[in-house]
Design brief:
Number of domains: 2
Number of helices: 5
Order of helices and strands: HHEEHEEHEEHEE
Radius of gyration: 17 Å
Oligomer: single chain
CATH architecture of the largest domain: 2-Layer Sandwich
Strand content: 15-25%
CATH class of the largest domain: Alpha Beta
Largest sheet: 4 strands, mixed
Shape: globular
Distance between the termini: 45 Å
Number of strands: 8
Amino acid sequence: MNTIQRFGWAAILLAGAMLSANAAESTPGRVIDDTEITTKVKAALVEVQDVSSLTVHVKTYKGQVQLNGHVESQGQKAAVGAAAAEVEGVVAVKNNLIIGKMHRTAGKMIDDTAVTTKVKAAFVGSPVVKATQISVSTKGGIVTLAGFADSAESKTEAERLANQVEDVHRVVNNVQLRQ
């Protein structure tokens, strides 16, 4: 078996483990509802003028929508938040969007991807952090954590682990506690 095949099987096994872990902590109806809300919010964002829906990441838990990513202006941030709030089933919106243009070279994008991968690997090795609950994105060495954690300990540990990764300049912890 060559290296590419091994990597492919490893990725499939990791994805399966993550799906199993996520399914164990959620009821089917709630997961479907949250997935449907996330899909509807993403569809609504396509309609927001001058905003790339690819730069806005959406997470949902029990109807609470979290918006993460980057937009260029306060007006865009407000428009994205308003569009998300109008979607049926949305209980609350936490708008964590960062304002400012992000100009990155291909080299910087590769560096950021490597940092994100290292942070996610640190989560997988932790007995406290559930890697399936927390998403990670990196821009210019600034790591943003998002999602919903079961405990304050998990949220704090995720931030601590991210800060320990080489080339991380700062961690923005937007993780919310499940209620």
